[in-house]
Each structure stands twice: as C-alpha cells, then as structure tokens.
From TrEMBL:
Domain Cytochrome oxidase subunit II copper A binding: residue ranges: 132-244
PROSITE patterns in UniProt: COX2, COX2_CUA, COX2_TM, CYTC
Taxonomic lineage: Bacteria, Bacillati, Bacillota, Clostridia, Eubacteriales
Name of encoding gene: coxB
Name assigned to this protein: Cytochrome c oxidase subunit 2
Ranges for domain Cytochrome c: 257-348
Coarse class of the protein's main subcellular location: membrane
TM stretches of this protein: 59-80, 101-119
Molecular function in Gene Ontology: copper ion binding; cytochrome-c oxidase activity; heme binding; oxidoreductase activity
Alphabetized UniProt keyword annotations: Copper, Electron transport, Heme, Iron, Membrane, Metal-binding, Respiratory chain, Translocase, Transmembrane, Transmembrane helix, Transport
Length: 348
C-alpha cells in the first residue's frame, strides 16, 4: 500500500512538472508571431524600426535580469533548503553592504541606460517637419471614419491614406468629435487625436505595400470598426494618384443609364447633403468625401471590400453592416440602391 502511494506521488509530481513546462512554453510562444499585418515587431519604416528597437532591447534586458534573479532564487532554494534531521533555524545573517550595494546600483545603471536610449530616440520621433521637408497630411478623426486632407495638392479623401515610399509624411492630427488615436503599427506608434488640440507625428514607408491600422482609443460603439489603410506607393505611382484626384471622373455619361440615374438619385435621396464628390455640386461636409471611391480597396472605414454587392448592402442598411455607424438608413427602394451603388463604382 505504501509502495503504491509512493509511485502515485511520484507520478503526480512528474505530471505537474511536465504540465508546468508545457504551460511555460505555450505562454512564451504566444507572443512570437512577428509577421502579422498589424505587428509593431515587423517594422516597415524608420519610425517603426526605432520603436521596435526600443521594444526588443528592453525585452532582452528584462530577460537577462529575470534569468539572473531566477537563477539566484533557484540556487538559494536548493543550497539552503532544510536538510533531513535539521532542527531549529539555521544561522541568521543580518545585513551585507556589498550585496545591498550591488542590487541597488546595478538596476539603477540598467534603468539609466534604458532611459538615455529612450530619451535620445524620443527627440527623433517627436520632431515636427515643416512642409518644405515632408509631405503634410491633415488627419481628422470622426465617429467612425478618417478624413485625410493634402493641403499642397488641394485633395481631400477618406479612410485610405496614400503616401510616397521613401518620403517623410508629417501627420497633423485633430478630432471633430471625441478622442481618437491614429495607429498603423508597421509604420509607427499611436498618437492621440484630441478635440480642440493639434498633435503631430511623422511616418515613412521604406517599401511599397498596403499597411493596416485602426483607431486605438475607445471612441464609441463603432470604435472597433474604425480602421485605417495606408497605401505606400512608388513616387511615380503616387504622382499619378495625385494627378487623377486633381481631375476626377465624377459624372457618368447619360449613355450609362443606370450609373447616370444613380448620379441623380444621389442628390434626390439626400446623400449630397452629407458627402462631397469633386467635380459635381455635391458638397456635403458631414460624411466621408467620396471622390475616388471606386479606387478604394475597402468601404465603411475599411471594414468590407469595395464591391457592388457590399456598396448596396451599406446603402440599404448601414447599421446592419457596421453597428454604431452614424449614416442613417434612408429606406430607399432597391432599384435606387442599385443605381447609387453603381454610380459610386464609377468615381475615380
């Protein structure tokens, strides 16, 4: 009986040790996915590279300190454990100036080195570039979408930010309603947009691509669906985009019967009271600018792909697509919904 209890006890300790190792490995590996679409550990520009460097250097310093501390703890537990037959307390030691000096000064030196590196990079990241040294884009946060204005090109667009690769972009950030936060992890850390206040941050993409981000400050019911798409383009392609935005195709020919009917229905339904479309007399300033809508990859603040079916669903019942959206359901008949969705698909 005693032998069975001993075997059972050893088996239980073995299972506990194995379970502890598996749990430790699971926790350690859970944060190791670097190549995700919104990972700050997969930088694609100098700002994100600096920030990722600070994160990784801090991480390894903490790992080294933790290893030293836990090694010392294990050694102390094994070396000074109670021995068989030991009675009473072991000899007590009060105070050790050398050890106390070591564990006070060493952490102070480590923290000072980390502080110096962080402060140095903060001056780099916090620099505000004038328009002569960087492309300026005015960013306004709305519930629950983004407005982007390019003062130098007299362009206004929404939700999809176009930038040239290899060029600094100075973002001038403000909010039209509540607090928001601009965050595209692969290009740079987040900066808050505060009503009545202007904040600044700069980003730069070192390679072409689509970079995803989102509002990182809770701003209401639709917060989770307030997403950002940054299209980093080679300079020639970016210049072509600017040129196309300066000469938009906004009114379809009458021969395109359905699209032209949608152009008329857009005003008749009241859509023009909220939305601007350059090249027309639709100058609403409440909702997103729709000038280049057909060229955008996504709609509804980058929530769903920009297809005819999705545009129809969005116009038909915005709340069903994006709960919390401020765009009202106008209860339009489906023939008008189809015409307007078709018209929006011609805007470029």
């Amino acid at each position: 009986m005693a032998g069975e209890m001993l075997v059972s006890s050893k088996h239980r300790r073995h299972l506990i040790r194995r379970g502890a190792v598996v749990a430790f490995l699971a926790i350690s590996l859970s944060g190791c996915g670097f190549a995700t679409a919104q990972s700050p550990l997969n930088p694609a520009g100098p700002v994100a590279q600096i920030q990722a460097g600070l994160i990784t250097s801090s991480f390894w310093i903490m790992m080294i300190v933790s290893a030293v501390v836990f090694t010392a703890l294990v050694v102390a537990v094994i070396r000074f454990r109670a021995r068989p037959g030991q009675r009473g307390l072991p000899p007590q030691t009060e105070g050790n100036n050398r050890v106390e000096f070591l564990w006070t000064v060493t952490p102070a030196i480590i923290l000072a080195l980390m502080m110096i590196g962080t402060i140095k990079e903060s001056f780099v990241l916090g620099k505000i570039y004038p328009a002569s040294q960087a492309l300026q884009v005015d960013v306004t946060g709305h519930q629950f979408w983004w407005e982007f204005q390019y003062p130098s090109a007299n362009i206004t667009t929404a939700n999809e930010l176009h930038i040239p690769v290899g060029e600094k972009v100075e973002l001038v950030l403000t909010s039209a309603d509540v607090m928001h936060s601009f965050w595209v992890p692969r290009l740079g850390g987040k900066t808050d947009l505060i009503p009545g206040r202007t904040n600044y941050m700069w980003i730069e993409a070192s390679q072409p691509g689509i970079y995803h981000g989102q509002c990182a400050e809770f701003c209401g019911t639709g917060h989770a669906d307030m997403r950002i798409t940054v299209d980093a383009e080679p300079p020639a392609r970016y210049a072509a985009w600017v040129q196309s935005m300066s000469h938009p195709v906004s009114i379809p020919p009458k021969s395109n019967t359905l699209a032209y009917q949608g152009y008329l229905d857009f005003a008749a339904a009241g859509c023009s009271s909220c939305h601007t479309i350059a090249g027309t007399n639709y100058n609403g300033a409440v909702g997103p600018n729709l000038t280049d809508l057909s060229d955008r990859l996504m709609i509804a603040a980058n929530l769903i792909p920009n297809t005819l079916a999705n545009r129809e669903a969005w116009i038909h019942d915005p709340q069903a697509v994006k709960p919390g959206a401020l765009m009202p359901n106008l209860h339009l008949p489906m023939n008008e919904v189809r015409a307007i969705a078709t018209y929006l698909g011609t805007l470029r």
